[in-house]
Amino acid sequence: MKKTLSLFLVRNREFIRDKASLSWNLVFPLLMIIGFVFAFSGDNKPLFKVGYLEPTPTNSETTNSGRGPVHYPLNHPYIQWIPFTELETGINRVKHHQIDLLVELTAQPRYWINSDSRQGVFLEQLLGDAGVDSALKQPVTGRPVRYIDWVLPGILGMNIMFGGLFGVGYVIVRYRKNGVLKRLQATPVNAIQFLAAQIASRLIIVVGIAIIIFVGCDIFLDFLMLGSYIDLLIITILGAMCLISIGLLAASRTDSEELAGGLLNSLSWPMMFLSGVWFSLEGAHPAMKQLADWLPLTHMVHAAREIMINGTPLGELTSEIWILSAMTLFFLCLASILFRWNKN
Amino acid sequence: METILEIKNLAKSYGKLKAVDGISFKIPPGICFGLLGPNGAGKTTTIEMIEGIIKPSSGTIFYKEKLIDKQFRQEAGIQFQSTALMDFVTVREILKLFTSFYEQTIPVEQLAEQCNLIGFLDQYATKLSGGQRQRLLLALALINDPQILFLDEPTTGLDPQARRHFWELIESIKKQGKTIVLTTHYMDEAEALCDHLVIVDQGKIIEQGSPQELLGQHFNTVCIQIDEAEIDNIPVDVATSTQRVNHQIQIETEQLEQTLSKLIEAGVNLSSMRIRNRTLEDLFLKLTGNQLREAS
Question: Does the model's pTM come out above 0.90?
Answer without folding.
Answer: no
